[in-house]
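Review form for a predicted model. The reviewer records the input and the model, then writes brief findings.
Reviewer: anonymous (R2)
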Amino acid sequence: MTQDDSPADERPSKSQQKREMHALQALGEQLIAMQAAERARFPLSDELLAAIEETGRIRSREARRRHMQYIGKLMRREDLDGIQAVFDSLEREQLQRDHAFHRLEKWRDRLIDEGDDAVAAFIEDYPDTDRQALRQLIRNARRERDQGKPPTSARRLFKLIRETAGV
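Model under review:
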């Protein structure tokens, strides 16, 4: 066995262990910040769930710091790949919602700017649209924009578009 193959080289350094522990604590912080319904999607042990729920009752800064270390320790025993997969899934869902909202915002702007051509295209894509309400909101939104008023009707138009599109 040469000096390069010593067992000490195979173990992570103390600094590396600290970095990993801080990463697990940060992951625990993300789980704590979530609503219970979102947290239910994660493959977490009962012990970790109890520790996460207990975090809300801790007021002392130092006690919270120690508790986060405890959560980091518990996180070492969890299915980190499964937890990361759920985080990735949540991120993809959020990205899809963002894209859908951007698409609806473009529809709103197009309806206000282009008028009847855009209305016809929108109705073609969404035939169940309340045409009268749509046209009224477009007229009101244009008037508000031209007069420099707050975009109340534009918001209502966006809401109508969102409900029609089912987003």
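Findings: The CA atoms of residues 42 and 86 lie 6 Å apart.
Further findings: The first helix runs from residue 7 to 10.
Recommendation: see findings above.
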